[in-house]
Specification:
Radius of gyration: 21 Å
CATH class: Alpha Beta
InterPro entries: LFS, Polyketide_cyclase/dehydratase, START-like_dom_sf
Organism: Adiantum capillus-veneris (Maidenhair fern)
Number of domains: 1
Shape: globular
CATH architecture: 2-Layer Sandwich
Order of helices and strands: HHEHHEEEEEEH
Helix content: 25-40%
Largest sheet: 7 strands, antiparallel
Number of strands: 7
Strand order of the largest sheet: 1-7-6-5-4-3-2
Structural class: alpha+beta
Pfam family, one: Polyketide_cyc2
CATH superfamily: START domain
Protein name: Lachrymatory-factor synthase
Number of helices: 5
Length: 182
């Protein structure tokens, strides 16, 4: 007796239940990308450079003309950095530090403002994993709510080629030149 009444309910509510599930899936869907590089330097040395949230221009000078903390306490979650790229196509991003953990060599941040609209909301995570005493794996990932203005492969390509790859190349160059000058 109860089974039939339950079945009736599910049939009559089937349309709304299905559309509700689809909406939930869409709301819950995120774009997630993970990129990895191996560098021949000890993890502490790489972290010393990359963990300075307001000093990214020091190790990524090709990408960034300047980078500075404009809100909050440097190195504390909640602080915001303003990063600006070079002319002739200057762009800027305001990025909020979400978490910085020196023990696990990990930091995460969120783009809270940008002259490039589809970067707003991008939430990268930067993690260093020691693979030997003298080498480190960089794991730079991001999550992003799906956008209508750009598709996932295009966003992935832009982030990888115009941001992450440029920065990692710069980082290697910076680390190498430190060793030459040491």
């Amino acid at each position: 007796h109860m089974a039939t009444s339950e079945r009736k309910v599910s049939q009559s509510g089937a349309g709304s239940a299905i559309s509700g599930q689809q909406q939930e899936q869409e709301e819950g869907e995120v774009w997630r990308e993970v990129f990895e590089w191996e560098v021949g330097f000890p993890v502490e040395e790489v972290w010393q450079l990359t963990s300075d949230f307001g000093g990214m221009h020091k190790w990524a000078p090709t990408l960034l003309a300047s980078c500075a903390i404009v809100e909050g306490t440097p190195q504390q979650p909640g602080c915001v950095r303003l990063a600006q790229t070079h002319p002739p196509n200057p762009s800027h991003a305001r990025e909020k530090l979400l978490d910085l953990d020196s023990a696990s060599h990990k930091l995460s941040y969120k783009v809270v403002g940008s002259s490039v609209p589809f970067f707003v909301g991008l939430t990268p995570s930067f993690n260093l994993i020691p693979t030997s005493p003298s080498s480190t794996k960089i794991v730079w990932s991001y999550v992003m709510q799906p956008l209508s203005s750009i598709d996932q492969p295009s966003l992935r390509n832009i982030v990888l080629t115009s941001l992450y790859e440029v920065c990692v190349k710069d980082l290697l160059h910076t680390l190498c030149s430190r060793h030459k000058n040491a």
